[in-house]
Write a structure and sequence with these properties.
heterodimer; A: alpha/beta; Rossmann fold; Dimethylsulfoxide Reductase, domain 2; 2 domains; 19 helices; 20 strands; globular; B: alpha/beta; Urease, subunit C, domain 1; eight-stranded parallel beta sheet; about 35% helix; disordered C terminus
């Protein structure tokens, strides 16, 4: 360690939805040389981050200043008839707020990576509700921990050690010894090693297993043929139900193995309903294991500003919500958008081919700290500072707990928030020159709210 | 150059300065009301309008983790009540849980300028502040939940009183909260432990050897020692349970001589036996408050129509889930409370709902000191804040009120419809209630003052309810049947 090494205490790792905020960073010459407490993913996230010599912005592949790029981006957005704003799960809430403001100003469609991960869980939540808890509560109380359709040992390495299985809690003083851990998945992943019980379900049969569990919890008979259908024996299910009903504080974590396979929101809904049913017998909660560092923040910001968590369209001058219609993959695949603003996401790397084909045809604006496939096909590319390492702000952990970022060292590049705010200001002045939609007085009348008062 | 304004021809109500419906000018310079302004000041003609201090909503749920969960939960509540963008304002959605921008605009359009979010767990304070930041125009703040705090319980249990005081002060400051909030003290621990609840002030809180009574006393004392502008804000135990008025009275008696605020007291003013039929004990509650100037309350009026049950009282939300069968959110928060959310509809033809409606009105009208019985619907629990104009009319307009009462199921007597005007019944509100005095405005500022007493005898709602008591209704059972359909 040289003399110029600096220690950043309680730094926050934004690599995954765990958002661990107990990292001690050692910073030397604008490089993180040590990330104490971080998992293997977090260590790589911090260690590999350097400030690269990249242009501030690119317009049609040519180097440009941020200001020039802001001007072009604003013009593209204002002149579009169906602009779409997408991404947002790897940036701060402050940037997300600016993005929603832009969408509101230009009547855009705004959607986040939620629509390709736990969007179905959001839909299920709207249908059946959710009994849930903060991770600290689970650490303090859970004596039965079930993971379903996920592999946290590899995707969220500290989920086990910091929150759920290993730690000693206020009401589970012996930590691991006081807890029973179950993993349900279609294959035996490395996470199975952490579990007391591993239950292997045939692919695409999660819903059937969940529904059978609901039936057993409520005391209804289940045909032993369930084993042939799902790969799980009735005895195994009965044993699990017994454990679920007799635990003190149970939790069901679920991943994209449920939400992105056949059944989607039916799967999530069945799991949430199971957790709710179990509250007739004991205390039971459920929680989606969210992936990106601030995808939970994106859900929250969109919800408080519009009432809806993702797939929001402002084309009528007010927010509308309709997954399938306003989810980005779907509307791109149908060839609907005529401009796209992509913030901290790389759809060209993971969207289906028809959606990517359409992205190639329309003007795309990208904000990202690193070169991406989406940036390769974009008209305008901004290089921005990396959130959590170079910029402060707020992110939401997967359990909706807001966490403060403590950046390690500054970046020469502007933050997403700064670029988006500049675009917003320019868009605002351009929109003001165009025809302004007139306020609709009768809609502003508070008396029109159905059911406000009979 | 300073900005000046003259509001002319308005009918001015300014209770703090004893101005009672005078037509006169109001002059404003640099955001402050002054004696006079130069003749070239901007003028607003307020002919035919009331000019009054901005309303203060002392207890509502408008921002933070549970509010946002309730927004996410109910797309069906938003889509028929959109709030379009204008060149000057952001768009949003309404319903019982509006988006943040819509919340600010709609409060302002009601004449309200301050709203206090009433239940924020310490861990959700930052989230709440972010949402309040996006709630335009109005002034706002929040109360931080401390009545189920396991760390504070630990200090109390060990008798570390001084550290308890410091911890409360630290939490208030760290969260940037206005005052401590107690919600069903002790209930969260039972809920998280075995989905149970506190039923009595002297129940033991498992694991801590404390009782709700001890927690309430300790937090009220510390809040008063800290000299906060608003006393500890208390949601009593046993909310919504028939017979709970005893718990409410017992809580107030425990605090005798100490400043405290009892919130949405309508939900805590019921007679009867748990599980049995519910009656009104509003007169008993109102009388206690009338004779104890150290206590203030807000009503938590129920208004018919859509509501969203949204509370840090998680066992209560579970009860609402069981009686309604509606979708349910529970969200436990480490160290302090959590929340429960259930969409709910108050129905005019439902005995319990109609009774709750009447209990709220009774509390308003029986209160001799409106400065200590503040107008609220516990938005959105009893109904949306958008129903305040209707509620104010219910309090101020006897004809309208009687018309509404005639529509209620409990109010039919052998002698015909109740509440006929001219029966000699005297309402406190008939001559004296106006928007300011109905507790919408300035009430909070004057809490504790013994100022304006005005007489009111018994009124017909009381008599009618006695008639209602003879109607055999098993309230919660009725609802359960509905839920099963």
């Amino acid at each position: 360690m040289n003399e110029r090494a600096r220690i950043v205490e309680n730094a926050t790792c934004t690599f995954c939805g765990c958002v661990c905020d107990d990292i001690t960073l050692t910073v030397e010459n604008n490089r993180i040389t040590r990330a104490e407490n971080a998992c293997s993913l977090g260590k790589a996230w911090f260690a590999e981050h350097t400030i690269e010599e990249r242009p501030y912005a690119l317009i049609d592949g040519r180097e440009a200043s941020t200001d020039e790029a802001v001007e072009v981006a604003a013009q593209l957005l204002v002149n579009a008839r169906f602009p779409v704003i997408y991404g947002l799960s790897d940036t701060t809430c402050e940037a997300q707020r600016e993005a929603v403001a832009i969408a509101d100003l230009i009547g855009a469609n705004i959607d986040t990576t939620t629509s390709v991960c736990h969007g179905p869980s959001g839909i299920a939540f709207q249908g059946v509700g959710e009994s849930t808890a903060t991770l600290g509560e689970i650490k303090n109380r859970a004596d039965l921990v079930i993971y379903w359709g996920g592999n946290p040992a590899e995707s969220h390495p500290r989920h086990f050690t910091r929150y759920t299985i290993i730690p000693k809690g206020m009401f589970v003083p012996n930590g691991r010894k006081d807890r029973t851990v179950v993993l349900v998945d279609v294959r035996r992943t490395p996470s199975a090693r952490a579990a007391d019980i591993f239950i292997q379900v045939k692919p695409g049969k999660d819903f059937e297993v969940l529904w059978a569990l609901r039936a057993l919890v409520k005391g209804h008979p289940v045909d032993p043929a369930i084993e042939e259908e799902t790969g799980v024996s009735l005895a195994t299910l009965q044993d699990l139900v017994e454990r679920m009903k007799s635990c003190r504080f149970g939790v069901l974590f679920f991943g994209m193995g449920l939400t992105m396979t056949r059944g989607r929101h039916f799967n999530s809904g069945a799991l949430l309903a199971l957790a709710t049913d179990l509250n007739e017998y004991t205390h039971f909660v459920a929680k989606p294991v969210r992936g990106h560092g601030n995808v939970t923040g994106a859900d929250n910001v969109l919800s408080w500003q519009t009432g809806f968590p993702f797939a929001v369209n402002f084309s009528r001058g007010y927010p509308r919500f309709n997954p399938g219609e306003f989810t980005t993959v779907d509307l791109l695949a149908r060839g609907e958008a005529d401009a796209a603003l992509i913030i901290a996401a790389d759809p060209a790397a993971n969207f289906p081919r028809p959606a990517i084909e359409h992205l190639r045809k329309i003007p795309v604006i990208v904000l990202d700290p690193k070169p991406t496939l989406t940036a390769d096909l974009a008209r305008v590319v901004f290089t921005t500072a990396t959130y959590g390492i170079n910029t402060g702000g707020t992110v939401y952990r997967m359990d909706d707990v807001p966490i403060t970022l403590r950046p390690a060292f500054p970046s020469p590049y502007p933050s997403d928030k700064e670029v988006l705010r500049a675009i917003k200001e320019r868009v605002r002045s351009l929109v003001a020159l165009e025809s302004i939609p007139q306020p609709v007085p009768h809609l502003l009348n508070t008396g029109t709210m159905p059911g406000a008062a009979s | 150059m300073s900005s000046t304004l003259r509001i002319v021809n308005g009918k001015v109500y300014d209770p703090a300065n004893g101005v009672d419906g005078e037509v006169r000018d109001i002059c404003v310079q640099d955001g402050k009301i002054v004696e006079d302004v130069p003749p070239d000041a901007r003028r607003i003609d307020a002919s035919g309008m009331v000019v009054m201090p901005g309303g203060v909503d002392i207890h509502c749920h408008i921002a933070g983790p549970k509010v946002n969960l309730a927004r996410k939960l109910q797309p069906e509540d938003h889509r028929f009540d959109v709030h379009p963008r204008t060149p000057f304002t952001r768009s949003g959605t309404g319903g019982t849980v509006p988006s943040t921008f819509a919340t600010g605009y709609r409060y302002a359009m009601l004449g309200y300028t301050t709203a206090m979010e009433a239940a924020v767990p310490p861990l959700g304070a930052r989230h709440t502040l972010e949402e309040l930041h996006d709630t335009p125009i109005i002034d706002k703040g929040f109360f931080v939940l401390l009545g189920n705090n396991v760390l504070l319980y630990q200090l109390l249990k060990e008798g570390r009183r001084e550290e308890f005081r410091h911890a409360v002060a630290w939490w208030l400051n760290a969260a940037r909260a206005y005052t401590p909030k107690l919600v069903n003290p002790g209930g969260a621990e039972l809920w998280k432990e075995r989905n149970a609840n506190i039923t009595d002030l002297d129940d033991e809180i498992p694991g801590f050897g404390l009782t709700p009574r001890q927690v309430i006393e300790a937090l009220v004392d510390v809040t008063n020692e800290l000299g906060l502008p608003h006393p500890a804000h208390i949601h009593c135990n046993n909310l919504g349970i028939p017979g709970n008025y005893k718990t409410t009275l017992e809580t107030m008696r425990t605090l005798e001589g100490r400043r405290a605020h009892i919130t949405h007291i309508q939900f805590h003013a019921y007679g009867g036996e748990p599980g049995g039929r519910m009656t009104s004990k509003a007169p008993e509650i109102a009388e206690y408050i009338n004779t104890h100037p150290e206590i203030s309350a807000d009503v938590g009026q129920v208004m018919f129509g859509r509501a969203t049950g949204m509370t840090a009282d998680a066992p209560l939300a579970w009860m609402l889930r069981q009686v309604s069968g509606n979708k349910w959110v529970n969200a436990d928060v480490e160290h302090e409370s959590g929340c429960g959310i259930v969409p709910f509809v108050y129905q005019e033809r439902n005995y319990v709902h109609a009774l709750q409606w009447a209990v709220g009105l009774e509390l308003f009208l029986l209160s001799e000191d409106p400065w200590r019985m503040v107008l609220s619907t516990d938005h959105p629990n009893g109904g949306s804040f958008l129903s305040y104009p209707r509620l104010i009319r219910l309090l101020m307009d006897r004809e309208f009120r009687n018309e509404q009462i005639r529509g209620q199921p409990t109010c039919h007597t052998p002698d015909g419809p109740a509440g006929q005007p001219g029966t000699g019944v005297h309402f406190a509100g008939d001559r004296h209630h106006h928007p300011c005095r109905s507790g919408a405005a300035a009430g909070p500022a004057r809490q504790g003052s013994l100022g304006r007493r005005r007489g009111c005898g018994h009124h017909h709602l009381r008599g009618e309810r006695r008639q209602g008591e003879d109607v055999q209704h098993a309230a919660l059972c009725d609802q359960r049947r509905q839920g099963d359909h």
